[in-house]
Amino acid sequence: MVYFYLALAIVAEVAGTSLLKATEEFSKLVPTTFLIIFYVVSFWLMTLALRELPLGVVYAVWSGLGIVLVAIIGAFVYKEIPDLASILGMGLIISGVVVIHLFSKSIQH
Known about the structure:
Blueprint: H1 2-18, H2 29-49, H3 55-77, H4 84-103
Helix pairs in contact: 1-2, 1-3, 3-4
């Protein structure tokens, strides 16, 4: 169940971060309100994942996958196409998350 909470936390964080441009520097009430709601929900769900997973692992997975997903949304929604260095860097992030998940002794498998 903790992985489900972590996955939902990532989705909420990605939704909130994806709204940053739409807030127009927090001058638009509706997107700003949703951004705040998504961030609060994301952090709350992270605390639920912390019941069984270490903080460092939760944060690494949450931030790493969040970075990649936000970049994908940025490419499709805002036409911000990542260059080769960005793609390689995100590949390394994904690789790191996989290594943590598969080999870390601090995660209960």
